[in-house]
Here is the input.
Amino acid sequence: MDGNSDALTILLTGASGGIGSALAHTLATRGHRLLLQGRNKTALEQLCNSLPGQHRHQVLVADLCNRQQRATLVKTCSDLPGGLDVLINNAGIARFALLADTDDVAMQSILETNLLVPMALTRDLLPLLQCSHRGAVINIGSAFGHIGHPGFSIYGASKSGLHGFTEALRRELGDSQVKVHYLAPRAVDTSLNTEAVVGLNRALGNRSDSPQQVARQCVALLEGRRSARRFMGWPERLFIKVNALLPFLVDTALVKKMPVIRRFAEQNQVHGDMP
Ligand SMILES: NC(=O)c1ccc[n+]([C@@H]2O[C@H](COP(=O)([O-])OP(=O)(O)OC[C@H]3O[C@@H](n4cnc5c(N)ncnc54)[C@H](OP(=O)(O)O)[C@@H]3O)[C@@H](O)[C@H]2O)c1
Here is the structure.
C-alpha cells in the first residue's frame, strides 16, 4: 500500500454522502486504502478520482438493503488480497415526521438501513476483521439516539438500537483484537437534513457541525488505543447526561417546543422529506 505500513483497508459505507465524502478525504490523506460504498456509481467515481492516492481506492456500488447486493459486497471484501481492517457503518437515512404521519414503508426503510444493515454487515465481515491485528468497527449513531426528539421517533429508535448493538458487541469482542467504536454526532451540515429540518434547528437554536468535524472525531476513534464512544457538541453532551439522569426535565423542555416542531413537520410533509 504505497509503502505505508500503517495503512488500513477500510470499507466506508455511504461514502458518497456528506459525512462519507469528508471521511473519505480525511482517511485517504492519512494513506489508508478505501472501499467506497454507495448506490450512486457516478458520485462514488467522482469522489474516488478526487482523493489522494486515487489508484489505491475502489468503488463498490451496492444497495445495502438488498441482501444479494450485500452478499456480493461481502464476497468482494473476502477476495481482497490484503484483507479488510475496518468497517465504518456510516450509510443512513432520516425522516422528520410525527409518528401519525409515518407509514410502514418509511418505518421499515429507516430501521433496515440504519440498524439491520449495520448489524448484518458487521456479522458478515467479522471473520475478516478478526484476521486483522488492527480490526475495528465504527458505527455512526446520532445524538437523537440518546435524546428522544419529537418528529424523529423512528430515526431515534434506529440510532438508539445501533448504540445498544454497539455496546453489546464491544463487550462481546472485548477479549478479542477487534475494537468496536461508536460516534454520535449532533446535527451535521449535509443534505440528509431537509430545509424544514435546517429551519427547525435554527428556530430551536440547535447548532450544527461540519462533516469535516465529524470525520476528525471518527479518525480520533480509529487511532485510539481502545474501543470508545464519542458524543459530539456542547451542550448536546450535557443534555444527553441530563436526559439519562433526569428525563422529566428534558420532557418538559421539549414538550414546550411542540408547536414549533409541529409547524416544521407540516412544512416537511408538504415539501417531501426522503432525501
Ligand atoms: N447529517 C446529520 O445531521 C447527521 C447527524 C447525526 C448522525 N448522522 C448520521 O451520519 C451518517 C451519514 O449521514 P450524512 O449526513 O452524510 O447523510 P447523506 O449525505 O444523506 O449520506 C447518506 C449516505 O448513505 C448512503 N445510503 C443510504 N441508503 C443506502 C442504502 N440502502 N444502500 C447503500 N447506501 C445507502 C447514501 O448513498 P446514496 O448516494 O446511494 O444515496 C449516502 O452515501 C448517517 O448514518 C446519519 O444518520 C447524520
Observations:
- The two ends are 36 Å apart (CA to CA).
- Residues 94 and 155 are 6 Å apart (CA to CA).
